[in-house]
Write a structure and sequence with these properties.
This protein has 298 residues and is mostly helical. The chain has ten helices and no strands. It has two domains: 157 residues, no CATH class; 76 residues, no CATH class. Helix content is 75%, strand content 0%. Helix 3 packs antiparallel against helix 4, helix 4 packs parallel to helix 9 and helix 8 crosses helix 9. The two termini are 29 Å apart.
Length: 298
């Protein structure tokens, strides 16, 4: 082809227009096999490797964070960090943990992928970014399966066991026990053990349904408290109101803490996705030798 080009130019003056167009079309036709390859643009091996590395680093950093958290908190009053400081520190640690682990996983996903030959540099940049994002997504889903389910089972089992033990150490508490208690409710206060179990069930059903004690239940609870403590009916009703207010305050505080934790986790996930995507472009650029070369990206 190289010897044919000057020969074609040499004959240019002796050929008509149609013959010249035919020669130019032949010369500009791309060679077979030089175009973009038909292989998949995703290297799942590299994505899986980055996701596993990211998840492993997350486990390590979670263990470290748990140790640091136990080191700064204290069960005694006026000791250790405050609750606000602990919550903010926990949220910031989640963000740093997501940035570090996701960046390492994304970098590996971009650096270990197969080099694409004949692909435009803009497309390579997009594919590297996609590799980092997929590595982050795979690690997030895998972490949710491996960590969230066992943690939820342990927490739910512990809470259920504690509730059942408080209600009755020998019998399990069912959803209808509170209604049965209302059927057998007497004017006189029940025995000590029975009254504690009954009041636990009564408070559990009322606050689980998102409502306060109704007037009849509040009067009955005050009557039981008066019989158990020797207080007058008015003082017993006052104590019931104070305890009910405290329960509502504690439940609302727990709700706010869970809400703040969910917000911190959401922010850390977004930052983790961004870190993984950017780190993958760096890893892919270093793999191809194009990182930092702006001209090669255009």
């Amino acid at each position: 082809m190289g010897t044919f080009v000057p020969f074609a130019h040499f004959l240019g003056g002796h050929l008509d227009r149609s013959e010249r167009k035919m020669i130019q079309a032949t010369l500009t036709e791309p060679a077979t096999g030089v175009g973009e390859p038909s292989v998949s643009g995703i290297s799942w091996t590299a994505v899986s490797a980055g996701a596993v590395a990211s998840l492993a680093l997350t486990l390590v950093l979670l263990s470290l964070g748990t140790g640091l958290g136990l080191a700064v908190v204290s069960p005694w009053g006026n000791s250790g960090v405050s609750t606000t400081t602990f919550k903010i520190g926990t949220g910031l640690y989640f963000i740093v943990m997501a940035m570090f682990s996701s960046a390492i996983g994304g970098y590996l996903a971009g650096r270990l992928r197969t080099k694409w030959v004949g692909v435009h540099t803009d497309e390579v940049y997009f594919r590297d970014t996609a590799h980092g994002f997929l590595a982050w997504a795979f690690a997030s889903v895998l972490g949710a399966i491996l960590l969230a389910s066992p943690a939820a089972s342990l927490i739910g089992g512990a809470a259920t066991g504690a509730t059942q033990s408080a209600v009755n150490s020998n019998q399990s508490s069912g959803p209808m026990d509170g209604y049965v208690d209302a059927l057998f409710r007497a004017d006189t206060a029940p025995a000590q053990n029975d009254s504690r179990a009954e009041l636990v069930r009564l408070f559990t059903i009322s606050f689980r349904n998102g409502s306060d004690l109704n007037p009849a239940d509040r009067t009955y609870v005050a009557k039981v408290v008066s019989a158990r403590t020797g207080l007058s009916q008015a003082d017993a009703e006052k104590r019931v109101a104070e305890v009910t207010t405290q329960v509502k305050s504690d439940l609302d505080k727990t709700r706010k803490n869970a809400m703040q934790l969910a917000f911190w986790l959401t922010i850390s996930l977004f930052i983790g996705a961004l870190s993984a995507s950017l780190a993958a472009t760096e890893g892919g650029g270093l793999r191809d030798g194009t990182w930092g070369n702006k001209a090669s990206r255009r």
